[in-house]
């Protein structure tokens, strides 16, 4: 037995040696033919190129960039880019690829961050970090440029082996979310091509046209020149300077305020709305920490988290232009204008408070905003987050993660969000209460990126202590035994449409939109200051996508507390008996420990409601009461009635929203629908969202076992919703009746496939790219600020 075991080990080692030997031989051949790889070869070649007005620049901007963006970036952006190859910027293409997986929830130790524009600068530094080139870094000649380029080889492989002329892809293609990735270097490419003949790029999508292929090959052949960016306009430079001057004031009050603003906006895309031309995409900026002040080149401080010790005596907050193509899955547009900065002045500068010293950057202080910013008025902090509440909540999926089931399988598929009005926290009693609860409100990020999940029990105990203290405080602090009514819900100060939100979860990604969209949901949250702050510091500021399993697991477990807290706040507006019934329906099949925790620790569920109900359906009535309270700030976007289709067509489409149960469960989570109007050349876009019902969302694993398929339903909206489409439908307006009838008849997978045969633009469609271009163009035309390229990594093969 032992001899057999030893023999297999020797065979395994031999295979490894043979494989590595083949790669070594291939490298030697490339060295002999085209010289050794050296980043200086490409750098030296690019120095000789002309200025921004050169033909090479024009060729790249007008011919090459549109192909890269429309055919490559739609799969290669953010952390989930295959092989970490981010093609959304010249710097990302120059950086190249890496075999290491970023999304790796079982790693014992935290990984080294590899964030573009932050952790390394220039190809040479990236090579030290294990990234290998996809462009030629050997002798700069036309032949070497194509033969020594992984990108060129991938394009040629696709040309040699285009998609089979079949409706569905066969077993040679893996389009699953967590598919294993093949990431060959140029020395390994021949072996890759033999084993993965259909692995050329774009992978599992139609090949480029001859014209597109020739554009990219000509560009690579001539050295793959990528020009420098145009400088900012005078107006942009002045706006940047003004905001940096404001953020970098010398007073302790301003330094603390700027730190707070930065830690909440570091993942956003700032733009100056007052100097942006109408119906155009603005120039976006990232707010970064720099070692250098305004007027000098930005020297980014590459900390894991925005609140980590910067390692310098003085931090400067700077605006760095966003240097990547805007993709929807990471895009958080944030308008800067005079009205907003006047509010910042009021909240952070003119407000009556004193800062005696700046808080420490030690994790146990900095990871808890209720400790770090105790000298900033709670009302100012809360006002700042509420002003752009959509952006605050949106950060938990578009911020540092792009996608992440770990953070998202803790929420229901669709729920509404309301906020406690700021006046409630504008009280010395509230400030004293939060000060007394600092220890109970500690967050997992205090353990940094390598943590042990067992410490979760400590947080569970503290959360229970906090909720009991909070309930006691609210019962005694309110005058005359008064309890919360709808008047304590924020109504947007009469003009802010961030007052209500709808959150859609799409398995491992999510969408946050303004307003109460769709039918009344099963659950809703009411968020107060402390909850909103902790959501941000748990899932945005404090989350490290490169963290170990303990860090990611504790984040997931802690989010259970925050979800239950938000739900509890909503339930508190209902009569006590109704609360218990709703709780039971929200946590079916839940273990006794959870039920005991929710009822006994999160909320005693015994205080009376401040609302007088007149019907038997208390939750439905509460939704109506809240709706009336916030009606003046409900946005009009996504309403079906705003479509320019005929009334009969809108009525037909509206019937899709009635699909539920098994029929709904067969549909994917995001179906994007292009309707070709009878009287117009401009298509209309709609999105059908499947809402997956669950018995409860408290299970870490085997989520499928908690699915309540009989209660699945859908939400139909006018416009594009979501970043990761699962399927595209295309229909002429005259065929809407047929589409709706066929959709309503879907009862099985076979029915669904037959439906797709009639109306889908599958990933194998011959005109897929033309459809894709039209869809993205329509999206950007109607949403030039919020819009961005969609991501095709979730397109189904059904």
TrEMBL record:
It comes from the Bacteria. Pfam families: CTI. InterPro entries: Fatty_acid_cis-trans_isomerase. This is 9-hexadecenoic acid cis-trans isomerase.
């Amino acid at each position: 037995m032992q001899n057999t075991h030893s023999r297999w080990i020797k065979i395994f080692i031999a295979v490894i040696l043979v494989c590595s030997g083949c790669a070594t031989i291939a490298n030697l051949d490339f060295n002999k033919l085209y010289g050794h790889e050296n980043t200086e070869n490409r750098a030296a070649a690019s120095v000789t190129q002309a200025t921004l007005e050169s033909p090479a620049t024009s060729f790249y901007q007008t011919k090459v960039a549109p192909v890269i963006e429309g055919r490559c970036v739609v799969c290669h952006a953010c952390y989930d880019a295959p092989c970490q190859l981010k093609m959304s910027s010249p710097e990302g293409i120059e950086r190249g690829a890496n075999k290491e997986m970023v999304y790796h929830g079982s790693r014992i130790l935290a990984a080294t961050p590899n964030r573009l524009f932050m952790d390394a600068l220039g190809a040479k530094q990236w090579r030290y970090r294990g990234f290998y080139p996809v462009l030629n870094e050997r002798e700069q000649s036309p032949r070497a440029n194509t033969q020594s380029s992984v990108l060129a080889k991938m394009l040629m492989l696709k040309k040699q082996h285009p998609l089979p002329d079949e409706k569905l892809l066969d077993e040679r293609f893996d389009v699953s979310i967590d598919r294993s990735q093949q990431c060959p270097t140029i020395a390994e490419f021949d072996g890759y091509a033999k084993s993965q003949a259909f692995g050329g790029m774009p992978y599992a999508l139609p090949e480029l046209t001859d014209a597109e292929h020739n554009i990219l090959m000509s560009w690579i052949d001539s050295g793959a020149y990528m020009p420098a960016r145009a400088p900012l306009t005078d107006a942009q430079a002045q706006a940047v300077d003004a905001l940096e001057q404001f953020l970098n004031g010398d007073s302790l009050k301003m330094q603390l305020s700027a730190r707070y603003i930065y830690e909440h906006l570091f993942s956003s895309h700032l733009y100056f709305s007052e100097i942006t031309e109408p119906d155009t995409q603005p120039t976006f900026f990232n707010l970064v920490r720099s070692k250098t002040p305004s007027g000098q080149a930005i020297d980014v401080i590459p900390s894991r988290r925005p609140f980590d010790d910067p390692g310098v005596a003085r931090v400067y907050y700077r605006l760095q232009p966003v240097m990547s193509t805007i993709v929807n899955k990471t895009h958080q547009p944030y308008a800067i204008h005079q009205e907003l900065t006047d509010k910042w002045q009021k909240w952070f500068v003119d407000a009556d408070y004193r800062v005696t010293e700046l808080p420490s950057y030690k994790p146990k202080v900095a990871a808890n905003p209720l400790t770090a910013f105790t000298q900033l008025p709670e009302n100012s902090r809360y006002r700042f987050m509420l002003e752009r509440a959509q952006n605050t909540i949106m950060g938990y999926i578009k911020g540092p993660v792009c996608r992440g089931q770990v953070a998202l399988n803790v929420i229901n598929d669709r729920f509404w969000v309301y906020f406690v009005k700021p006046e409630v926290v504008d009280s010395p009693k509230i400030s004293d209460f939060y000060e007394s609860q600092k220890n109970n409100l500690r967050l997992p990020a205090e353990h940094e990126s390598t943590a042990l999940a067992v410490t979760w029990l400590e947080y569970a105990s503290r959360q229970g202590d906090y909720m009991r203290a909070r309930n006691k405080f609210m019962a005694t602090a309110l005058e005359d035994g008064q309890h919360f009514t709808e008047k304590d819900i924020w109504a947007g100060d009469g003009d802010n449409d961030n007052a209500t939100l709808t959150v859609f979860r799409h398995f491992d990604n999510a969408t946050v939109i303004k307003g109460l969209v769709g039918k009344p949901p099963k659950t809703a949250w009411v968020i107060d200051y402390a909850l909103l702050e902790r959501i941000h510091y748990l899932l945005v500021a404090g989350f490290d996508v490169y963290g170990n399993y303990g860090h990611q697991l504790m984040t997931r477990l802690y989010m259970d507390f925050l979800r239950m807290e938000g739900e509890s706040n909503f339930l508190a507006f209902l009569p006590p008996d109704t609360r218990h019934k709703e709780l039971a329906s929200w946590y079916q099949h839940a273990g006794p420990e959870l039920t005991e925790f929710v009822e006994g620790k999160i909320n005693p569920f015994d205080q009376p409601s401040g609302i007088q109900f007149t019907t038997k359906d208390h939750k439905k009535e509460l939704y109506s009461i809240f709706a009336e309270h916030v009606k003046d700030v409900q946005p009009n976007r996504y309403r079906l009635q705003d479509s320019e289709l005929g009334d009969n067509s809108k009525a037909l489409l509206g019937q899709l929203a009635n699909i539920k149960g098994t029929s709904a469960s067969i549909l994917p989570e995001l179906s994007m629908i292009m309707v070709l109007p009878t009287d117009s050349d401009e298509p209309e876009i709609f999105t059908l969202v499947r809402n997956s019902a669950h018995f409860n969302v408290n299970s870490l694993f085997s989520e499928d076992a908690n699915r309540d398929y009989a209660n699945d339903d859908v939400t139909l909206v006018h416009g594009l919703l979501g970043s990761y489409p699962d399927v595209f439908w295309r229909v002429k307006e005259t065929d809407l009746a047929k589409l709706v009838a066929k959709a309503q008849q879907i009862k099985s997978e076979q029915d669904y496939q037959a439906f797709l045969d009639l109306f889908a633009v599958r990933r194998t469609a011959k005109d897929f790219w033309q459809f894709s271009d039209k869809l993205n163009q329509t999206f950007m035309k109607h949403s030039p600020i919020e819009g961005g390229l969609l991501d095709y990594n979730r397109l189904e093969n059904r």
